[in-house]
Amino acid sequence: MKLAIFSDTHGNYPLVLRALDETGPVDGIIHLGDEIEDAGMIEDIVDCPVVKVAGNCDHGTRAPRELKCTFAGVSFFITHGDAYNVKAGLGKLREKAHASKFGVVLYGHTHIAAIEQVGETTFVNPGCLHKASSTKSFATITIDAGTVHVDIIPLLEVLP
Questions:
Q1: Which of 2, 51, 121, 127 could form a disulfide with 113 if both were Cys (CB 3.0 to 4.6 A apart)?
Q2: Mean confidence (pLDDT) of the chain
Q3: How high is the pLDDT of residue 140?
Q4: Spatial separation of the C-alpha atoms in residues 160 and 158, rounded to whole Å
Q5: Exposed/middle/buried for 133, CB within 10 Å: 0-12, 13-18, 19+?
Q6: How far apart are CA 90 and CA 45, in angstroms?
Q7: What is the pLDDT of residues 80-91, one digit of tens each?
Q8: What pLDDT is recorded for position 157?
């Protein structure tokens, strides 16, 4: 199973579509909030499930702020991250993951891509695709027989 992970797109959904073209077929897409409307537009275009959570900039949405899901037998905790104060570190998120024994924790909010292994849990921040960001990235997660492999994929925005 292959998943594409995006966060903090802030209206730059065309770059998400380009990223999907470059990465090839995926079995699902996860959007970690901040312009959840982008996830809705993507959902209308792609032919795979789109899982989405709301971020701190997603006012008035009915989307959940966090989700617990299982993909290919691996338990995931999905959040934007602001409620766990991730800009100050992953302490609160680590506590949540440890208490619930999640295999993968996905978060955004910091706009900084990161992969961190803590015990049995892999923490992934795909970075952001905000137009104003000097570094744009997303992540792919491949799950094969219970083994999780994560890649952070940088993107250069091509200007017309």
A1: 127
A2: 94
A3: 98
A4: 7
A5: middle
A6: 34
A7: 999 999 999 999
A8: 58
Q: What is the pLDDT of residue 153?
A: 96
Angstrom distances, CA of residue 47 to CA of 11, 13, 148: 21, 16, 23
Examine the pLDDT at 156 and tell me if it is beyond 90.
no
Give the model's confidence band at 158: pLDDT under 50 very low, under 70 low, under 90 confident, else very high.
low
Q: By the 8 A CB rule, do 127 and 153 touch? A: no
In angstroms, the Cα distances linking 8 to 73, 103, 143 are 27, 23, 24
Average pLDDT (2-11) is 97
Give the model's pLDDT for residue 82: 97
Number of other CB atoms surrounding residue 149 within 10 Å: 11
Q: Which two tokens stand for residue 65?
A: 């702020």
SS3 track for the chain = CEEEEECCCCCCHHHHHHHHHHHCCCCEEEECCCCHHHHHHHHHHCCCCEEECCCCCCCCCCCCCEEEEEECCEEEEEECCHHHCHHHCCHHHHHHHHHHCCCEEECCCCCCCEEEEECCEEEEECCCCCCCCCCEEEEEEEEECCEEEEEEEEECCCCC
